[in-house]
Amino acid sequence: MVKKILAKSYVYLILLLMYVPILVLIVFSFTNSANVGQWNGFTLDLYPRLFRNKEIMTAVGNTLVIAICSALVSTVLGTLGAVGTFYSRRKTRMVIENINQIPVVNAEIVMALSLTFMFVFFGNFVFRAELFGFWTIMIGHIVISAPFVYLNVKPKLTQMDPALYEAAINLGCSPRQALSRVIVPQIRPGILSGFMLAVTLSLDDFIITAFTTGPGLLNGAGKIQTISTYIQSVIKKKVVPVELRALVTLIFICVVLATIIVSVYRRHQTLAYRQKYQSQEALARRNVRYTLLITIGLIILVSLIAVIATL
Predict the structure, then answer these.
(1) Residue 102 half-sphere exposure, CB side, CA atoms within 13 Å?
(2) What would the pLDDT profile of 258-281 be if each residue is shown by its tens digit?
């Protein structure tokens, strides 16, 4: 009994330390005071101001563009790498898997410095031009995201019957058809989870973005600012815009809604549900439709919040 109480107390203490700062920001996003801790009365003024703040909206736009583009490329590379490695010889597979582990376990600052030196070298001695910009950030985010996509796809491949590909070839499929119609439906959950993880890693990244940034995207001739680099730059000036409290609240709401939707969706993945849709291919297509609907719903929700806040 005492052990259970201590264990629960420890868990609740950790949760308290994790979420109290976020909840404080959420509460003070409904007042227009300059400092957190000073309550000037309830108001929604910060939300229209957030969408009118060009610097923050530019950073949000840059972050979303980079996250989605780098996640798409990382998903393709990670999936193809996992499939190719799975059907490779044992020694080749071991070498590739060990190489894939390097970006995962390596310090991010080491990766950022390595990429910076590489871009400087190619810019000075090969292209004779400044390389830093959108494409250097993209390359950096792909480097850190693709290995995690590989790690998400690999377990689905090991769960799959390795003879499926050969059976499809023997039954008349071309290699491309066997890959798209047989292999991909089997590993689609791993691909989707890898894509979402790649998006999360890109949204959360600061070090590689700060080291590889340059002019472009919504910043025009100025350096590309994402949410993380923008917040770091304003913190250095010791003038934190109050609109960031509203931004934190909206991000937290989107994350909570996504978690609830995924939890509800998983409850439907019961035995009865699987018996009703016994075909793995039909189930995979249904999973993709649910994922697309969830994504579209979140985009519409955020858009409605933005429109209502600007009225």
Answers:
(1) 9
(2) 777 766 666 665 554 455 545 555
